Backbone:
């Protein structure tokens, strides 16, 4: 069956450090992968999209890698700040639809001063 | 530019009742998607609509669930004869014409079936 796995344990890091979150998947062949941020009681907010033919993507303090051989994506936040504390979701395109996404359960990140 | 609006934010229904969830997409967006998040699960795609058309409902349960996006007014997700297992957060997203990957999510409706 299809699975999207993210670290279930919360990640606690100190302000200024780099946070690294992992997304592993099985039985998917996604055309792209996305990362979202979700705050309590709110909907997901899009952060980055990386396509299957891209190895790495950057946006300000965010960096995403995508390894289709390992079926894994890594999401990095450099110089982390307390305002980065949230749940981060990995989402995969289902069946190359281009629009239908399934999400992992997310990893909670807490950045302490 | 207001974001995606969903109402109600919280909805309580007894078993057997009907639930109607509304979604107003962002201004200028012509694509609407509905997702469901069951407790302890990730969001799962349910349905993709354009005005007056259901494009893909492959993620929607075959019975009791229906969705529409009329020419005028919000998109509606309708659940008939709700059961406890329908308790979940339902999220709507919209995207601009021709950019289906770029989805903007609403705050969700939390449905509780008692």
Residues:
């Amino acid at each position: 069956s299809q699975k999207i796995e993210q670290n279930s344990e919360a990640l606690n890091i100190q302000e200024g450090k780099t946070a690294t979150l992992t997304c592993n998947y099985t039985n998917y062949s996604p055309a792209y992968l996305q990362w979202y941020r979700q705050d309590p009681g709110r909907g997901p907010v899009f952060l980055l999209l990386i396509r299957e033919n891209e190895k790495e993507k950057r946006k300000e303090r965010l960096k995403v890698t995508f390894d289709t051989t390992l079926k894994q994506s890594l999401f990095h936040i450099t110089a982390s700040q307390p305002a980065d504390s949230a749940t981060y979701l990995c989402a995969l395109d289902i069946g190359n639809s281009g629009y239908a996404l399934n999400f992992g359960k997310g990893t909670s990140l807490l950045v302490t001063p | 530019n207001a974001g995606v609006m969903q109402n109600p934010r919280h909805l309580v229904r007894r078993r057997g009742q009907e639930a109607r969830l509304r979604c107003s997409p962002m201004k200028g967006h012509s694509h609407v998607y509905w997702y469901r998040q069951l407790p302890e699960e990730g969001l799962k795609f349910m349905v993709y609509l354009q005005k007056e058309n259901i494009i893909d409902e492959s993620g929607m349960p075959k019975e009791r669930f229906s969705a529409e996006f009329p020419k005028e007014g919000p998109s509606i997700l309708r659940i008939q004869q709700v059961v406890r297992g329908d308790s979940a957060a339902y999220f709507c997203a919209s995207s601009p014409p021709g950019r289906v990957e770029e989805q903007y999510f609403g705050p969700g409706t939390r449905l509780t079936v008692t």
Observations:
- Chain B has a mean pLDDT of 95.
- The two ends of chain B are 37 Å apart (CA to CA).
- Chain B touches chain A at residues 4, 31, 33, 35, 37, 40-45, 48, 56, 58-59, 91, 93, 95, 100-108 (CB under 8 Å).
- Chain B is about 0% helix and 50% strand.
